[in-house]
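General statements about sequence and structure are easier to judge against a single worked case. No coordinates are needed to read the tokens, only the vocabulary itself. The sequence in question and its structure tokens are set out directly beneath this paragraph.
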Amino acid sequence: MSAERPPPPSPDRRPREGALAEIARAADPSLRAHADAHPSFGRYESGFPDDPDRAFVVEAIHEGWLMHYGTPRVFRSMDDDLRLLGGDSLYALGLARLAALGDLEGVAELAELISLCAQVAAEGRAELTTELWSASFEVLAGQGGGGARAAFARLAP
């Protein structure tokens, strides 16, 4: 009795590669050497099931932010200078993709998010970044809301 292999999954049933894997491939060559070969799925990409470009954008910006202020999910083992430059590179990668899609309002929202997150981190109020990210995510996912600036105004004294 021979064991037969199941047929390969049809194209629409193959496991989808996550945005983080695409970001690792699209990153600057100096960063690729530090990329995890099999990154997990990103925190926000499930909010864009029918829009892989937008998932890529949000996850690229988030990874850039993590390279500056947290623990990156994709890129590891870098000195502080490369990590800072890599974060900037990922910000640019995400914003450029969104601009190429013609979503200038989305670019403005993410630029505001980046700026406000840097501000609260510099002020020692990094705990506010979760709310800022959530507010921007809602705008970018088409769920409404006032975005990061409105959340900042509500949270900041």
Residues 80-100 form the longest helix (21 residues).
